[in-house]
Amino acid sequence: MPQGARASRRRGRQGRPGGGVVEVEDAALSTSVSESVAAGAVTSNGSGTTQASGQRQCLRVAMVCDFFYPNSGGVENHIYAVAACLCQLGHHVCIVTHAYGDRSGVRWIEPGIKVFYLPILAVYNQASLPTGVVSLPLLRSVFLRESVDLVHAHAAFSSLGNEALVTAGILGIRTVFTDHSLFGFADVSAILTNKILRFNLVNVTHVICVSHTARENTVLRSGVPPDRVAVIPNAIDPCSFQPDADDPPVDTTTGRVVIVIVSRLVYRKGVDLLVRAIPIVCARFPAVDFVIGGDGPKRVDIEEMRERRNLQDRVRMLGAVPHTGVRDVMCSGDIFLNASLTEAFCIAIVEAASCGMLVVSTAVGGVPEVLPPDIVSLADPTVDGITAAVAIAIARATTRTAAEKRHQHDRVARMYDWRVVALRTQKVYTAALKSPLLRLDQRLGRVYTVGPIAGPILVCYCVVLELLALLLTWLVPVEPRSPLWFTRQDRRGLGTRGAHRGASTRD
After folding, report:
1. How many Å separate Cα 171 from the centre of its chain?
2. Which residue in 125, 133, 121 sits closest to 67, CA to CA?
3. Strand, coil or helix: 279
4. What is the dihedral of CA 136, 471, 203, 175, to 10 degrees?
5. What is the spatial distance between Cα 436 and Cα 480, in angstroms, rounded to a whole number?
6. What does the pLDDT look like over 405-435, one tens digit per residue?
7. Of 341, 385, 386, nearest to 364 (Cα)?
8. Could you give the CA distance from residue 291 to residue 234 in angstroms, rounded to a whole number?
9. DSSP symbol at 500
10. Phi-psi category of residue 15: left, alpha or beta, with phi > 0 → left and psi -120 to 50 → alpha
11. Is the model more confident about 249 or about 62?
12. Residue 16's CB: how many other CB atoms inside 10 A?
């Protein structure tokens, strides 16, 4: 049972057990991990215990996803944070993604993470063109050249990540997949996506989901046995999301209550609900203003509502906000509002809670697992539900003090820490490496079970990839890199303290 489950049950917290909220037991673990990483003396092994640095097992991990820096988002931040913490724990991590404009080749980012920007075309929402045949030679070269022990792919929408799972299976490398999203079952796009996911995960060694709701969704969509699916929640850097030290309490007689919304302005983020709810809240509470950060195709709907209702002075549009500026936007308000229609985890509400804000969110997906009820007010994904929850939060916001916000930040910092996420991910890696490798006939047999029509077609596709890999072995033999993961020449680009994020050296 995950540590979060044991902690939640011992506290007697209502709701589903095993959620991401861990306040007591994992607080001590987080503190010990922080001290260990800072001292460089100990690390955690696969069984969850610590051991001396000289005895730890150093893993070589390749994280593969279409979505990474300079693109910004929850998946991108997750990959970078986990990779950085794994490096601090003594493992070697490289990241493989597609080229972004002129950003191609090999780059280094802190703290010594090697990033491969492969020359692969991105066709839609930064997802690469799915071919398999084109990506296999590139991925094979990276995995063999870097002596990869384990391939960790992210995001079901990432074509490159999905193809990396197939390539790793051909090369005899164990695989882990992290699913960050929820998908439906009824529409045509969902059926097609789920069929592709079932094929990509049929031979995967282990799967990670960010919430228990996401775990159930992934098991139903992909057919992966539940005992191969772990739940590891997202986290934040609490030092980057702290409340203002001298933030005064809100007084509606002299000041105003500010509700902050930071989100991509797309349909699934509930923009249609916001367009109807914001005028109602403004009419009921004359001392309430809205600050909206984010951009997307639905931004025009909010701007039209603002013009039509004459709310230009009370609804401020900031446009796209870089991740480094999200904290300042959140600290400018008192209440954070999330109106998403579907969420596997919603890291934005954790960031807002860490800034000391009261949180109002729709009770969808894995959101009810994320924060305790005294921090978040859950609402039905309807206009009436959102307005009622916002009204309760406004009443609470008028009496909150700076000390209460600081105490809330300290609680959230104990609940979510990337170093704890890295330790749990390390445990999954250890379990994956202990799993037996599948023979070719076993892998093809599993692929055949994907479907009566899709199964035989995908078996033929896999056979073609196997023959291509065999041909490449003869035509383009690849020598592994130095056992030290990167050579002394590569280290020159790092300097004494590691490369700046985005700084590069070319191979």
Report:
1. 27
2. 125
3. helix
4. -50
5. 23
6. 999 999 999 999 999 999 999 999 999 999 9
7. 341
8. 26
9. P
10. left
11. 62
12. 14
